[in-house]
Amino acid sequence: MNRAEMLSRLKNKNTAWDLIIIGGGATGLASAIESAARGYQTLLLEQDDFAKGTSSRSTKLVHGGVRYLQQGNVSLVLEALKERGLLRKNAPHLVHNLPFVVPNYDWWEGPFYGIGMKVYDLLSGRHGFGHSKFLSKEETLEYLPTVEPKGLRGGVIYYDGQFDDSRLAINMAQTAASQSATVLNYVKVTGIIKEKDIVGGVRAKDGETGEEFEIRAKGIINATGVFTDDIIRMDDANAKKMLTLSQGIHIVLDKSFLPGTSAIMVPHTADGRVLFATPWHGKVIVGTTDTPVKEALLEPRPLKEEIDFLLSHAAKYLTKDPVAADVLSMFAGLRPLVSQGGDGNTAAISRDHTIYISRSGLVTITGGKWTTCRRMAEDTIDQAAMVARLDEKPSVTADLQIHGYHNHAEKFGDLAIYGSDASAIRDLVYHQPEYKKQLHPNFTTIAGEVIWAVRHEMARTVEDFLARRTRALLLDARASMDMAPQVARLMATELNRDDAWITSQIDDYRKLARGYLL
Questions:
Q1: Which of 119, 481, 476 is closest to 330 using CA atoms?
Q2: CA distance to 113, 341, 370, per residue, from 224 (Å)
Q3: Total-model pTM
Q4: Residue 285 shares a structural domain with residue 433
Q5: CATH number at residue 210
Q6: Torsion of CA 304, 306, 312, 314, to 10 degrees
């Protein structure tokens, strides 16, 4: 997956695009795979980097949604549980089982949550990740040695999935490319072209060179997440607002706060959300909140009250109470929720996806969640193909392996997240021993991974590498700042950039990373 090659395809005047997809997050990338796998000539344009927004800022869970079961939305849970199973089947190098323990402190919690998890198991059917069971107090402490023991009666264990969100996004971009889709980051759609009041293409601008394009297509898909309304207004300046935005934040702590391989799940917090504390890449992620916000931003920031909320709730359930100084990184993500009128509690708004077709034929897909992105894409391409009058073709993505597919990626050790690409990275390092250099003592990341990310994963900036190709920014923001100069120099050599670019990249990254520190 090479950006210069992708750009040359975009400039090829002989290409007749069937579908243009705006947005390079989970939904847009899944739609590009779905479209290209059906044989449609597909172009995806992302204004920044792939998964720059919400899709790299999730709770890192591939799950059916215990809260949705509590809300009585059984159809959404069933769909999510099926898609959870398909994701594990098609991307086993990134999706794995994770045990979750619900600690019980009141007499009614054991039977109440135990029965709920049995229903969850039943709904999972053949896509199940493991059977839930009741735990004694002693068993609960074995799974969660640092859980608060005072008043603990026992627990319930169940199984769900965990993944690396932005790594999956990059592999999905590569999968779309392997299916002959053209995917481009840093190309922003600036307008919609209409012919006789029907959408017929887009205007776009290359963020690196400033070059502008007019691109024709039979159909246009708006898969821009929290920026959905911006694209809708390009189509219709008088369109009503479609989304309500909600912010969820996470804090990252040292592994000592939750040693072991099990996660804590608290089913009901003060704001009505489920709270998780999960082990991930050798750290612990605690989240999430649900705070209504007004404005869609590429870099949302956690609010003080959100941070205080997570620290205080974590202290309720952990023997070692975290304080602000313990936070290694913090990150915020925005949720695109289809508005149902009013300014109520966003935690109660359904995460079902919605497809909207405007009078001009613009197809908008929004809502949903990471786990169900494949199904969302299937529904979207069904509708978009019909609107664009493309030949009807069936979906094949339920059995399509994601780039990097490997059933035993753990054998690659520190390179496991690359799946089948790990062997090629090893070969690269073997032939260039200087690429073995570790970039920071807190991370196993080596110089060769920077080279790989530029050559094969379309990393264009220091942030692309440290935030999304690796997860250094989210795991230890301060340490990632120390890595920035080495990463910038390595990238500059590959991208043929000068010293001014290196200096600018280092400065920009450090400014960004400071926003991830308390």
A1: 476
A2: 36, 21, 14
A3: 0.94
A4: no
A5: 3.50.50.60
A6: -130
Structure tokens at 400: 């399509």
Strands 17-22 and 198-206, sheet pairing: unpaired
Handedness of CA 363, 368, 371, 372 (dihedral sign): negative
The rounded distance, in Å, linking the Cα atoms of 465 and 379 is 32
Decide if 257 is inside a domain: yes
Lookup: tokens for 345: 């509690």
Count of the separate structural domains present in the chain: 3
Residues 76, 157 within the same domain: yes
> Phi and psi for 20 in degrees, rounded to 5?
-110, 130
d(CA 426, CA 436): 9
Q: What is the pLDDT of residues 367-422, one digit of tens each?
A: 889 999 999 999 999 999 999 999 999 999 999 999 999 999 999 999 999 999 99
Domain containing residue 477: 409-514
- Quote the tokens at residue 451: 């080279």
Q: What pLDDT digit, counting tens, does each position of 446-458 carry?
A: 999 999 999 999 9
Q: Identify the residue whose tokens are 């072209």.
A: 193
Q: Is the pLDDT of residue 350 over 70?
A: no
Q: What is the C-alpha separation between 389 and 200, in angstroms, rounded?
A: 13
CB 379 within 8 A of CB 174: no
Q: 10: which 2 tokens?
A: 């975009």
